[in-house]
Amino acid sequence: MDRISIAGGRALNGVIQISGAKNAALPLMIASLLTPDRLTLKNVPNLADVNLLARILRNHGLDFTIDGKRAEPSPHMGETFHLTARDIVDTTAPYELVSRMRASFWVLGPLVARCGQARVSMPGGCAIGTRPVDLHLMALKELGAEIDIDGGYVVARAPNGLRGARVEFPKVSVGATHTALMAASLAKGETVLENAAREPEIGDVAECLVKMGARIDGIGTSTLRIDGVSRLEGTVHTVLPDRIETGTYAFAAAAAGGDVELQGARRTLLEAAFEALEQTGAAITDTDKGIRVKRDGRALEPIRIETRPFPGFPTDLQAQLMALMTKANGTSVIRETIFENRFMHVQELARLGADIQLHGDTATIKGVKALRGAQVMATDLRASVSLVIAGLMAEGQTTINRVYHLDRGFERLEQKLSGCGAQIERIVAG
Ligand code: EPZ
């Protein structure tokens, strides 16, 4: 298994190009199941999760090609995917595939909306918590689907099609909003989704659906009104920039010190994270091409924050912020309110010398003078990258094991960081 080795203590100076958002690319690819026509997606990041989803969708009969695929993908442009689900040949998403990537469960909504039936394996738990699917099922039931659980599979049936309904989510869920939005686009009549997630990736999918012929009002708000249509068409859509990747490199620049321009980044996608970063003492300015993050020799100020659905501080940046705060000039408090077990990075940060106490959903981080490099490993994507940030701040050598987590969500991470002066390299397993 590959590892990443970092010699810490070097400032970051230069330019990093932000890739297309993984968490928009995945549901956009799934939206291709809603139409027999071709959906072209531009700026798709080259990531393990994206490639795995393409394989999963092929299983349903999707025809999938990549434009101008080269051995060395262009460093500054994502790939262009052409996805055509002319005939859905199989409405089952088997355990072997769904268990490898949770977001693939989201095929359920489009499949039952278009084909009147779907059989999708329950995704099961994962490293960051139990992550149930009850809200997805509730939404589909409201839209008229019959739902059974059979042998670990969700079986959804709507032989006469789905029909519009009012769906009020008792809790904000990104995935359940995707499921309901996609399904309602092909339902008969009007659907109103209340307390819908407002994450920018939902807006990106909604904009793409509108180009495909869907009628959606309220994009970007927590009430989405969808007037169902009988058929959606193909279109061309560009995936929005990855706000979590943006925040990760912004925190990395603040952690290592230096001056980094994040080209393609959009401030409106992560106001809360930038506010937090400014409180720590980093300077953030808009440039013609994106956003510049700068921190001189000043000490990092501690922070008190809790994760919240958008537009609040994202759970997907919690681990990275915690890594940054390990060397703050005082005690920080971070409360995780979205997932119940998203602190797997704490014990690994402690290996580097961080002083973190956990009480339930709250981490108290006492800033230390220095971190020292060590061997670490992480169990999920964002936790892994928090260790990269800590490695950049630590004295000496840090080796991060289980790099495949990083490959799921960060495109060319080592190249992007080493382009700014970091001493980081991948040690390929022999
Ligand atoms: C999406 O996951 C993201 N994944 C996650 O990013 C992100 O952390 C999460 O949203 C929150 O922002 C993708 O976009 C592919 P949720 P999702 O449904 O949709 C509970 C990453 O690192 N819930 O918004 O699965 C759930 O347990 C990943 O890129 C129910 O109770 O998250 C959690 O506590 C990790 N019942 C809360 O809602 C349900 O039916 C929010 O989860 C569904 C969710």
Kindly describe this structure.
By secondary structure, this protein is α/β, with parallel strands linked by helices. The chain has two domains: 3-16 and 241-427, Enolpyruvate transferase domain (UDP-n-acetylglucosamine1-carboxyvinyl-transferase, Chain), CATH 3.65.10; 22-238, Enolpyruvate transferase domain (UDP-n-acetylglucosamine1-carboxyvinyl-transferase, Chain). It contains 14 helices and 24 strands. It has helices at residues 22-31, 48-59, 95-98, 108-115, 134-142, 174-185, 200-211, 243-256, 271-280, 318-325, 345-351, 381-393, 404-409, 413-418; strands spanning 3-7, 12-17, 38-44, 63-66, 79-84, 92-93, 117-121, 146-150, 153-157, 166-168, 190-194, 215-217, 224-227, 235-238, 258-263, 283-286, 290-295, 304-306, 331-335, 355-359, 362-366, 375-377, 397-401, 423-427. The strands form six sheets. A four-stranded mixed beta sheet has the order 22-23-1-24. Strands 2-15-17-16 form a four-stranded mixed beta sheet, covered by helices on one side. It has a four-stranded mixed beta sheet with strand order 4-5-3-14, with helices on one face. Helix 1 (22-31) packs parallel to helix 7. The chain is elongated. Bound molecules: ligand EPZ.
